[in-house]
Amino acid sequence: MEFEIKGNPDFGEARAKLGAGDSFHAASGAMNWHRGPVSFRAKLMGGFFRSLFRKVLGGTSMFINEYQATGPSEVAFSHCVAGTLVKIPVTSEGLLISGGAFTACTTGVDMRTQFGGLKAFFSGKGAFFIQASGSGDVFFGAYGAVVEKELDGELIIDNGHVLAWENTLDWNLEGAGGLKSTLFSGEGLVMRFSGRGRIWVQTRHLTGTAGWITPFLRS
Known about the structure:
Layout: E1 2-6, E2 13-18, E3 23-27, E4 31-35, E5 38-44, H1 48-57, E6 63-69, E7 73-78, E8 85-90, E9 95-97, E10 102-106, E11 109-115, E12 128-134, E13 136-141, E14 146-158, E15 162-166, E16 170-175, H2 179-184, E17 189-202, H3 206-218
Antiparallel strand pairs: 1-2, 2-7, 3-6, 3-10, 4-7, 5-6, 8-13, 9-12, 9-15, 10-13, 11-12, 14-17, 15-17, 16-17
């Protein structure tokens, strides 16, 4: 099985080349096109209740699609918003992925949900993050471009720009400042990271774009 990504950084699309017996998982609605003897079926990722929590509180579908080939096939898939699509190998430490960013993974990757704390309810990105572990590759999509940061120390990032990070990092979701700053600065909640590891950040904020467009819709 081989993957090739085209269209980055604006409209990333991954194309999977499958042989007989190859399979992978993709988020519901991620498929663009396919050809060859390939079938797919919807399945719950991690059991019913975990999938239900992820749908209601995590911002992602209850179901993922499993694509399986019985001969040479191709499947193309992309993220739900315009931007960069990246493929990251899952290390032994694992990755945490923000709600809604997950796009696909190979069959050796185990996907679970992790509660982000009470503040995550008000973050605009869902109360749960997706934890990826095991062996294989995971795909996630950005709104805009993706910037990879190698952290050794501390870094504070607007939570709307955080896509994923390695599980070696400590993190906390908190207000951008005092109560007044958090409510009126336009920054809202931020994520404070510390330790050593990698973080993937998107250059645009979908909520910010929606807020910019809204006044024009009212005119």
